[in-house]
Amino acid sequence: MALLTDKARGVFVISVTPFKDDGSLDLDSLDRVTDFYLSAGADGLTVLGMMGEAPKLTGGESRQVIQRVIARAQGKPVVVGVSSPGLAALTEVSHEAMAQGAAGVMIAPPMNLRTDAQILNYYRQACGFLGTDVPVVLQDFPLATTVQISDELLGRLIDELPQIVMLKHEDWPGLSKISKLREAEKKGRRRISVLCGNGGVFLPEEVARGADGAMTGFGFPEMLVQVTDLASRGDIERAQDIFDAYLPLVRYEQQPGVGLAVRKYVLAKRGAIASAAQRQPGAQLDALAQAEVERLLRRQDKRLKELG
Amino acid sequence: MALLTDKARGVFVISVTPFKDDGSLDLDSLDRVTDFYLSAGADGLTVLGMMGEAPKLTGGESRQVIQRVIARAQGKPVVVGVSSPGLAALTEVSHEAMAQGAAGVMIAPPMNLRTDAQILNYYRQACGFLGTDVPVVLQDFPLATTVQISDELLGRLIDELPQIVMLKHEDWPGLSKISKLREAEKKGRRRISVLCGNGGVFLPEEVARGADGAMTGFGFPEMLVQVTDLASRGDIERAQDIFDAYLPLVRYEQQPGVGLAVRKYVLAKRGAIASAAQRQPGAQLDALAQAEVERLLRRQDKRLKELG
Amino acid sequence: MALLTDKARGVFVISVTPFKDDGSLDLDSLDRVTDFYLSAGADGLTVLGMMGEAPKLTGGESRQVIQRVIARAQGKPVVVGVSSPGLAALTEVSHEAMAQGAAGVMIAPPMNLRTDAQILNYYRQACGFLGTDVPVVLQDFPLATTVQISDELLGRLIDELPQIVMLKHEDWPGLSKISKLREAEKKGRRRISVLCGNGGVFLPEEVARGADGAMTGFGFPEMLVQVTDLASRGDIERAQDIFDAYLPLVRYEQQPGVGLAVRKYVLAKRGAIASAAQRQPGAQLDALAQAEVERLLRRQDKRLKELG
Amino acid sequence: MALLTDKARGVFVISVTPFKDDGSLDLDSLDRVTDFYLSAGADGLTVLGMMGEAPKLTGGESRQVIQRVIARAQGKPVVVGVSSPGLAALTEVSHEAMAQGAAGVMIAPPMNLRTDAQILNYYRQACGFLGTDVPVVLQDFPLATTVQISDELLGRLIDELPQIVMLKHEDWPGLSKISKLREAEKKGRRRISVLCGNGGVFLPEEVARGADGAMTGFGFPEMLVQVTDLASRGDIERAQDIFDAYLPLVRYEQQPGVGLAVRKYVLAKRGAIASAAQRQPGAQLDALAQAEVERLLRRQDKRLKELG
């Protein structure tokens, strides 16, 4: 499989990890949801991300997920989340994943990093352990990691570590970060791919500011594909029309903790996975919340029909 | 002026604090924005909240803001944010505010609190310093304070401290917290007022689950009033229609840091304040962001006309 | 090997994990340091603790460490640190360790927990995954984890989860926590073992207040053994004499980050391990710091001789 | 009174703020403890620091403390802690303090700062608000503030903001920070004064590495004076002898939260203040802890006599 490059664009869906109701891994549903994402127009997939319940898996299960998705992905690039408290474990899983055909690995900074120097040093060490032939996606998600990467530091990371080919952008607020990055590139810094996260909640603006697409999840990944496509082609009004129709659900799914329960509920309802179960510890979608989601789905359906 | 009680309902707008371009307090604009909020249908006002740039004011300026808004508020209740690292300062400003006619004070927990026992003890001490005749709004906003209040602890606070008459609810996710609170009240716990924050981003669901309204800010406070009113009367579909029309802007305004710049930009554009300036340190709305906001405003206007 | 019980007492040394200068695991040194700890009078050992560089090991290396130390420990109880972001991985390594003869497992709460309810729920789930026959050491170390466990919550954990047989006490400040725990036990709560951490910096006071000993590391573990023994037998003055002689080094070793470099330097100097190397990322002891440690060692030696 | 300069050296004692048992400010004791500090050999005083219970005072009380101590300080420099969430309040209190004769102000970074750029920008703004004629002490205390300042960033702050004349050094671990700072100065960076905090727990090493003394508190400030003096003159062994005699109490006083209770207990016992009371919320020294302190005091007394 081809390696991830700084030319990557479009939508890489952050895949859920399906479980059966008893908490065991559901590999059949993993196949099914892989097909579902690809048929929705995904340009790639990312497994074992934060919304993939990665920390809940054993090492062996992680390997199964990686193998299974790569085998099913019809040659589309698969990025593997390898964030880990320790570099030896991170390196081991990264090398295994690359050997199996992964396109690259995604690394979020550990929660204990604070200063620019600490963060820079961490990525230096991680890249050193991995070797320069492993493409790295830098996940910039301070709401989850508490680690903040300034515009200046981001520039230093890009300048110094060429194997960082992509930014998974979910700083919050972060629109100006995209603009500043693209400006710096116009002035000579090497261009990297920027795919946006945060459930897509700022996707129209992000693509308009120069992002190459999305790397996130949502119960309706076809929205991410359409909005990215329309906004990339400059049709920002139509992109925003589509986006606005889905926005009430995007917003609802963005609730921390509950969000994954909503996403899995929708995916199960749409037949992409057999069960909405999360492995423990995981939030449940209670009856009230289900009713709220169902109401939003009905309204979304109606609004999409109005839009044509 | 009447004291705040557990019967309070409707919309208490979190007032911005207007500044001139040179950073000095703009008391004329403070009058104007007070009128603006009231004409939008506000049932009350809250000054010196987090989005009121309270920590940027000197003690003397804070007193000016309190006096001015109470004098202008046409008898509507004015809640004063008094969160402070120390109880002596908190008590001093609270007693001054109450003497000037405030309806109550709002207290967020200091960032260093962690355990249930620490949080409970803090509110015990704060209420002890204030005296039982000062109505207290408990601000539950973990995204900003990092302090998390569990359902169980919230119950203990309500049980033990009768002067807590209102919850400013902006836990995230927090829909189930409202439902659990209302369930506990049905089983015998005393009922308190629940007004919701977070820029109103879950307002339809919150009111449908039993919240009494909103205590938050937005460039279009009339939306908060209409949605609260419609949802309270059970017309959740119409409430959501109105809400959805404003949601793209609500979402945009919810970006931390940038949000207040958006809100002040809109308020200045609508003539409610003379300048969108924030006192330093404060985010600026650059040209790109202004264009994004303008685009959202045009779309919002169009959508509201479609809805009639 | 016998399981850990609430009767455990004495000193369980937190073992370092020796590496060669090239960063590879040094199993011969692991044998040697195991012998060293036991000959210093250790009543048990704890492997893969925070100061054992656990997160830097791969899964396979962790297994090697566990096996090797248990095989070498002459039947003394070996506790295995299994803290992990996910319960499946935690359970897998715990079951493997117990099958190999570990006496119990040690679990620190994940950094994202805040409320009493979250912490209680986490330990409920962890114990549920492990099964009731796996003895658990609760590591209470807020300086490292940011998770604070109140006296009240500690009581609830002990009451509800009988397999928690030991508290690794390193709350800071935490002397009163020991006293309150022992008081509650006098009033009827089941008694658990309390071994103290924090590099032993409060050991005389801790044992005098009812702790059963220490579970921590230090370049001179014989100090931990002597102080625990003397203080347990009521000879607090002699215990403190010994302690005070080592205190300048204890203090120096307690520096976060640098501390492990000091400890390994001393252990290498004493011949207990071949190299002071840490696996990356790890602090180095530079020439200035080495000179400071050497000066403290000379003074310590002199003072011990004075004491006789 | 003379302004603070980068030549400052010796011991600036962080003054406690005395309260009566009823929680009211005890200005007579404030006079007495000021005399006590000066008679112990203090070269300066710092009021309204973290251990001065500054956030518990009202604005009016803070002014009283500043005036009273400056009037009593016999012309010795008085630094005023002015850390505050907002720059307007910080500026107001700073200008008032300087007008009353303060030698300079001390500013710790607000807890919400993370990136190098944010921290740099904050100090730029603060210095801008203050004006260049107000000498600033930069308090670098990450254990309390959670803000980490790297060696590199510290250099940028010193380079860019000449009014930062002193570093209150209490990074932890931070010995290498002093050495790196002094090395950079040898290579041409302007020299600033470095006074160390952390209760003096690393004072011998700090002075030996180039610190100019201490800015911290302790029940026996004469120890800080003697150790600084001896170590500055190169008599590190005698400095460490004195230090080691006090170290068991230094260690005990260093417990977060409890530490101030210990310090005030000792100061009250020594007659420097009338009551050990802290204003609420504040830790109490219970009977067990008092007995521990008394035991340490007896041993300290004996050891000092042995040393002669």
TrEMBL record, chains A, B, C, D:
One of its GO terms (cellular component) is cytosol. InterPro entries: Aldolase_TIM (IPR013785), DapA-like (IPR002220). SMART domains: DHDPS. It comes from the Bacteria. Pfam families: DHDPS (PF00701). Keywords: Lyase. Gene3D superfamilies: Aldolase class I (3.20.20.70). Pyruvate binds at M215. GO terms for molecular function: 4-hydroxy-tetrahydrodipicolinate synthase activity. Belongs to the DapA family. This is Dihydrodipicolinate synthase family protein. It comes from Oryzicola mucosus.
